[in-house]
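Subject: design request, 429 residues
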């Protein structure tokens, strides 16, 4: 065997960690061709070394002792693939301070503690990379940071959670929310506790990271406006179909002048839009900017080997750039304000259930008009003395639409609170 000249330490040897080792072993020749180096896992930190592993580590690689891992002189570059904010955060900080470059697959850690971790990396003069933390196999961070370095990206649209995309694709074919969740769990796309996925928390962490990299200004997890898919009903999905659209959980990051808006919420997406074609558990990210107009990247957003491919790519980048001065740490170089949510502009969809009385529609549209909001499309259905109105509103500030909806909700003929979602039609070309 050729000599190993870069020792890799893995924090964690689970689904992703063992796949990283598999790729490093099975693709050692390709990696050597690309970097001139042999990379081998020399240490991996776990909780239980006796556990059976899908791709066993070499003899004496597994350890439960972090101090031993940190002090091991053979560990030259570290991949953090253990997850959780703690103790992973403390371990990464200590390793950076000890002068070891780190690549991480941990979206919650990067989205929550990124500022401090990048400062620690800069002080120590070592790299901290995080490609695998967003959309697994899709190389979106590298595209934003390197390929688009001179492009002013002003909008990022993403389907960044495969579980909810699978569930919404399932609902589109006629299933209820409960059926869709049960199917996602049966196929291993959703955890027994799916809260992080269905509430949009997982997508919010990824959008915080993407927006930070795209706009060069820190967006924390808590800065992301978030709404999950739990309130969606088959009626909304079939209304979308009637309007020529599909429902998707969309992350939207927008640069408006000197302010940033980042949100995750279900949205109606026009069937002609590239994101409408993203079916099942896939992810996609659309980047819109001055010089590029639009680029869409699509691929698997989860999975052990898929995520490991991004971890290995980061390891290769670290090895390839070490000593060159190409540090690529904190993406932030400015501090932009958060756009007040009321000023965020979009077309909107409104589902209204009203009693079938003369003048209801005129009442609704005149109240919208009083807030300078106009109707672009309307589908009306009558059933047992009640009417369902499906409205698509022209682009308007969210604040104006929300205020009109608060007033319309208390009309005597309105039977349920209006249900409002943004609509994505234009492609920013
Ligand atoms: N799986 C995916 O599809 C995917 C996709 C994108 C990103 N990610 C991210 O990748 C990371 C790893 O995910 P995973 O699916 O590989 O998780 P996993 O299978 O649960 O593996 C976690 C590993 O970390 C070790 N570990 C956890 N807590 C530890 C502690 N306190 N001390 C020492 N070792 C500890 C575990 O040890 P034991 O083996 O002894 O329990 C295990 O080896 C997470 O940040 C996740 O969000 C995963």
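Subject: RE: design request

Done. Sequence follows.
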């Amino acid at each position: 065997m050729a000599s190993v000249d870069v020792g890799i330490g893995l924090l964690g040897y689970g689904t992703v960690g063992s796949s990283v080792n598999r790729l490093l072993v099975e693709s050692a020749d390709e990696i050597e061709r690309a970097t001139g180096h042999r990379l081998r896992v020399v240490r991996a930190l776990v909780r239980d070394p006796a556990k059976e592993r899908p791709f066993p580590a070499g003899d004496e690689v597994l350890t439960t002792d972090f101090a031993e891992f940190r002090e091991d002189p053979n560990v030259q570059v570290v991949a953090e693939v253990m997850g959780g904010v703690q103790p992973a955060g403390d371990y990464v900080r200590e390793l950076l301070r000890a002068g070891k470059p780190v690549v991480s697959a941990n979206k919650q850690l990067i989205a929550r503690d990124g500022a401090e971790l990048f400062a620690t990396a800069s002080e120590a003069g070592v790299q901290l990379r995080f490609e695998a933390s967003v959309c697994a196999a899709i190389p979106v961070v590298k595209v934003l940071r390197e390929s688009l370095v001179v492009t002013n990206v002003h909008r990022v649209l993403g389907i960044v959670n495969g579980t909810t995309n699978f569930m919404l694709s399932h609902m589109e074919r006629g299933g209820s929310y409960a059926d869709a969740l049960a199917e996602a769990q049966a196929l291993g796309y959703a955890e027994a506790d799916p809260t992080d996925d269905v509430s949009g928390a997982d997508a919010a962490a990824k959008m915080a990271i993407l927006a930070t990299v795209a706009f060069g200004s820190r967006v924390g997890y808590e800065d992301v406006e978030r709404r999950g898919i739990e309130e969606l009903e088959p009626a909304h999905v079939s209304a979308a179909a009637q309007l020529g659209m599909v429902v998707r959980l969309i992350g939207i990051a927008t640069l408006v002048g000197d302010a940033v808006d980042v949100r995750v919420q279900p949205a109606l997406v026009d069937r002609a839009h590239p994101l409408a074609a993203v079916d099942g558990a896939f992810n996609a990210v659309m980047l819109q900017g001055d010089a590029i107009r639009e680029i869409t990247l699509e691929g698997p957003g989860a999975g052990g080997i898929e995520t490991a491919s991004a971890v290995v790519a980061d390891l290769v980048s670290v090895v390839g750039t070490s000593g060159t001065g190409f540090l690529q740490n904190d993406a932030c170089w400015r501090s932009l304000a958060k756009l007040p949510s009321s000023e965020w502009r979009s077309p909107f969809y409104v589902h209204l259930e009203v009693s079938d009385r003369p003048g209801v529609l005129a009442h609704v549209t005149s109240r919208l008009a009083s807030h300078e909001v106009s109707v672009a499309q309307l589908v009306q259905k009558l059933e047992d003395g009640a009417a369902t109105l499906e409205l698509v509103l022209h682009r308007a500030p969210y604040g104006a639409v929300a205020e009109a909806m608060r007033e319309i909700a208390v009309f005597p003929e309105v039977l349920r609170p209006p249900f409002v979602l943004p609509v994505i039609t234009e492609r920013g070309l």
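The mean pLDDT is 94.
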